[in-house]
Fold each of these.
Amino acid sequence: MKRIFLFATILSGLFLLQNCKKDVITATTFSNKTLFAAVNDTVWTANSVNASITFNSTSKTKVFSCNGVGTDRAINLLITQNKAANTAGFPIGTFNVDSTSNVVLSYYTLQRNNSGVIALAPQGTVHPGSGAITISGIDSVKRQITGTFSFVSYKNFYDSQGNITAVNTAVITAGAFNNLPYTFVSN
C-alpha cells in the first residue's frame, strides 16, 4: 500500500511540475538611426550619412566609404579591398587598422583653422591596432550595408622643442551602421 501511495505521490508531483511554467521575457532593441556611436561614453548620432562602394577597374580595388556628420562632429570610415571584382557587394568580415592605408577611421571635431574659420577638422590619428570595422551584412540588391566599428583617435600636443606635452584621446565605441543605404560606382 505504501508503494502505491508513494508512486501516486511522485506521479502527482511530476504532473504538477510539468504544468508549472516560467515567465519568459524577450527584449529586442532596434534603432532607426543609420549611423551612431559612443564618443568618450556619450552617445553621438549622425544627422546625415553618405556611403558608397566604388570599384576602380584600373587598380582592381573596391572602396567602402562612409561619412557621418552630426552636431559638431563627424566620423569617417574607409575600407579598401584589393584584387576586387566589379560587383555591388563587399566582403563580410572584420577589417583592422594596420600600417597600410586599407582601413582608415577618422574622427572630426569643430576647430578653428589657420584662417580663423571654425570648421570640422581631424581630431588626431588612429594608430595600427587601435581600431576596426566589421561588416556583418550586405544586401547588394537593395544596396544596404550593416556593421560595427570602434577606434581610438590620438592627438599629440608638443612644446617648442618638439616634445610631447599632452595626448588627447577620443574613444569611439559601440559604433554601428544599420541597413545603411549606399551607392555603387564603377569606373
Amino acid sequence: MSRWKASGIHFEAAGGDRLIFILAAVDVTLGPLITLIIFKAGKKGLKFDLAVARYRAGRSLVVSGL
C-alpha cells in the first residue's frame, strides 16, 4: 500500500487505515466462505475450482495493495 499513499497524514485523513482493515476483513471472511461453498468431496473439478478461488483471492490482495 505504501506505493499508493502520498503521505501518512493524507492517508490517515482520507480514512485509508479503515479501508485497509475493511479490505483485509472481507478477504479473510469471503475466502474461506467461498471455499466452503465450492468444496464437495469427490467433485470432479474440485482442484480446478479451488485453484480459481485461490487465484482470485491472491489477485484481490495484489490489486488492493496489501
Amino acid sequence: MGENIEHALDVKVPGATSIDRAGTFSFTASASDVPRVHGYSALEGMFFGGCIFSGRAAAWAFATISSLPCVGMVWKNNWFGDVTTNGGTWISIWCSGCVFEGNAMFGMSGNGVQGISLNTSRGVVIMGNAFDLLGTAINCTTAVGGLLVTGNNFGGFAGGTVTTPVANTANCTPNYVNQANDQGRS
C-alpha cells in the first residue's frame, strides 16, 4: 500500500490497514491501488454525501498528494467533528472543480485543528458550511485559482470560534471571492 490517498472513516472494514479504536480504521492506497475509470484515476467525479467523520484523536478525514489530484469532487452535508485532541487537518487536497457545500466541520476549543487545506487547486467553491472550534477553517496552502467562499458560518455555531476563517489569501490568484460569510452567530 502506498501513501497517495489517505482517509479515515468510522466503519468496520475487513482488511483495514490499522484500527485505532473500536470501529475506526485508517486506509491508505497508492495510485496503483485506485481503480481506473475511463483510463484515469478514480478520483474523478467523486461524491461524499451524508458521511460522518467523527471520534478521531486528531482531525483527519481525507488527503491527496500532488501526483494524484481530485477532479470534479463534491463534499455535501457531511459531519466532521468530535476530535479528542488538538491538531490535524480534516481535508488536505489538490483538486480541480471541487465543491464543499452544507458541511459541519468542527475541531475543539484549543484551536489546533484546520478544516480544509487547498494545495495547488483550481475552481473551488466553498459555500453554506458551518465551521467552528478551528484554528483555520480554509487554508490556501499553495496556489489556488478561482476560489469562491460564500455563505459560510465561521464560529459561534457550537459556541466556539474560528481564529482564521481563510488563511494565506495571497496564494489565491486569480479570482478569489470571499463574500457574505457570517463571522459568528449572536
